[in-house]
């Protein structure tokens, strides 16, 4: 029976949930996801947790923020002039910005004032501990 190594292709069902049990993402009711170890599909610490597992196994791992989406960083919260936005804004909406290199950078509208808008560029799950549940469906070695 193949076990997951750093050279495996893995098919799995997974679920991410918050500390209060709220499910953030899950594919248990869908087809399994597939990835090649190290291809960037999963965060490195999520991959590392799967090492040594084999088809049919299921496990849950509590991932602290530093092993998941990082700590919430106050410097990722920006104040911008309200006049910079030509659209109707609502708190909680995600707006796409471009960084200095013209890469897309999503920001969440945190607060809307008369003169300025506060935009949070942290990952929505930053600063949160997550439970990562995985059920391994298939493991194969890739050359």
Automatic annotation (TrEMBL):
- Is the keyword Isomerase assigned to this protein? yes
Q: What class of enzyme is it?
A: isomerase
Native organism is Marinomonas alcarazii
The entry's keywords: Isomerase, Rotamase
Xref: InterPro entries: PPIase_dom_sf, PPIase_FKBP_dom, SlpA/SlyD-like_ins_sf
Instruction: Give an example GO molecular function.
Output: peptidyl-prolyl cis-trans isomerase activity
Q: What is its EC number?
A: 5.2.1.8
Is this entry keyworded Isomerase?
yes
- In Swiss-Prot or TrEMBL terms, this protein is called Peptidyl-prolyl cis-trans isomerase
- Name the protein family: Belongs to the FKBP-type PPIase family.
Instruction: Name a Pfam family for this protein.
Output: FKBP_C
Catalytic reactions of this protein: [protein]-peptidylproline (omega=180) = [protein]-peptidylproline (omega=0)
Q: Name all PPIase FKBP-type domain ranges.
A: 7-81
